[in-house]
Predict the structure of ABC transporter ATP-binding protein.
Amino acid sequence: MAVADSEAEPTVVADHLDIIYKVIAGQGGKGTAATAFRRILKRQDRPTIREVHAVKDVSFIAYKGDAIGVIGRNGSGKSTLLRAIAGLLPPASGVVYTGGQPSLLGVNAAMMNDLTGDRNVVLGCLAMGMSAAEIQQRYDDIVEFSGIGEFIDLPMSTYSSGMAARLKFAIASAKMHDILLVDEALATGDAEFRVRSERKIRDLRDQAGTVFLVSHSLDVVLDTCNRALWLDGGVLRLDGTAEEVVAAYTKFARG
Ligand SMILES: Nc1ncnc2c1ncn2[C@@H]1O[C@H](COP(=O)(O)OP(=O)(O)OP(=O)(O)O)[C@@H](O)[C@H]1O
């Protein structure tokens, strides 16, 4: 269901999307590479492959200017959906069309732990395709927005998880993204950073990009998103305005 008007330009179209993970199910052990290796050494039978159907027949259209909260219980397929939109997971069936370049900002986004925050800002900006001149121009804003202060000259390995998440968000949001995918990055920040990052998401949305935000904080979704998708067991239960979907999910969660 589309919240935008008929003039709006679609940026992401998911059409009957199914994502299935294939995992090695060991006999008694966990399905890790180590257990598979032990099995080979012991010349045991081939392991069974278990399938996890993480996203089931999901269809929606996102438009320019949409900020879409993705909500649902643990394991309901939210991160998987974001990774599929980013093109990191091949669909088992169905398709995702994206008009523009999606950028996934996850709490696990690659940063070089041994390098200083300062070097990571430069690397991150280069990775997003910014020129040296653009980086120089944006550098102070990024550092100020991150609120890292003098820690910017220390290796990332000395940062708390919240500080690292703030720096990642500051780097990612320095650039205008066609489609920005944010996975729980705000949850690790403190209250003050949360307020600033919510404002930033609103700016990105106003600049006519499309933002997807996976969050367990329904308040953040209500404050920053115009739309929400509720996933349950990989199925899209509801697609509508943030208020409507959060209300339905809250009612459901309260049993
Ligand atoms: N790399 C993987 N290999 C196999 N199964 C996976 C993998 N990643 C996720 N899954 C499974 O896919 C399903 C959806 O997981 P996903 O991480 O997308 O859920 P989520 O809604 O983001 O959860 P949470 O709120 O806990 O972050 C779960 O059953 C999970 O066990």
Remarks:
- The chain has a mean pLDDT of 87.
- The radius of gyration is 20 Å.
